[in-house]
Design a protein that fits this description.
It is built from 7 helices and no strands. With 190 residues, it is mostly helical. It has a single domain, classed as Serine Threonine Protein Phosphatase 5, Tetratricopeptide repeat (Alpha Horseshoe), CATH 1.25.40. The longest helix has 44 residues.
């Protein structure tokens, strides 16, 4: 796993960009909970498409043991993102159901991944549980109002965003920690 750090470290900025998008989306949903469904749907759709791309890339190039889960999550994210962007202002109930299904699916996959990984598993488990709970609440009450949906959505986006930003900067720090030793040992080799 530690040998993957340089490869992941090169793309640390993707995690930060995704995190910033999540945080901005969460803040907008908190500041203006009465945002139009169109705006909320577009932001959610963009986030889901970026997530889909990252998961599909992980399914192709990532750890062979987690490729199936990444592919499933990538496909679910892609479908949900396209629905949000295709019909962002149509039906609150449809968007609520899609958001709830996505959150439950991603939460379950995140928990499964966390138990299959080494290191700080509790981050993955905690975020997965939050996703499942928020998705379950959303699915339990599909007639939920936009303001309540915005609050749930905002909480989830803020947690995800902060997590992604922290991971991105940790990958960057690990990458920079790896680089000097590589350069230093190459100097002695010549």
């Amino acid at each position: 796993m530690i040998s993957d750090v340089p490869e992941l470290g090169r793309n640390w900025w993707l995690f930060v960009v995704l995190g910033v998008i999540c945080v901005v989306t969460g803040i907008l949903a908190i500041v203006w909970p009465d945002l139009t469904l169109l705006t909320l749907g577009i932001f959610a759709g963009i986030y889901l498409l970026i997530t889909a791309i990252m998961e599909i890339i992980d399914a192709i190039f990532g750890d062979p043991g987690g490729r199936a889960l990444s592919a499933i999550l990538g496909i679910v994210s892609l479908i949900a993102g396209l629905i949000f962007l295709r019909r962002p202002g149509e039906s609150l109930v449809a968007i609520v159901v899609v958001a709830g299904i996505f959150l439950v699916a991603e939460g379950v996959i995140r928990v499964v991944r966390a138990f299959g990984s080494s290191g700080a598993r509790w981050w993955g488990v905690a975020i997965g549980i939050v996703d499942v709970i928020v998705g379950g609440v959303i699915l339990s009450w599909p007639g939920i109002g936009l303001v309540t949906l915005a609050v749930f959505f905002a909480a989830t986006m803020l947690i995800r965003g902060i997590f992604a930003i922290v991971v991105g900067f940790k990958l960057r720090a690990l990458r920079h920690a790896e680089e000097p030793s590589t350069v230093h040992s190459a100097t002695y080799a010549t």
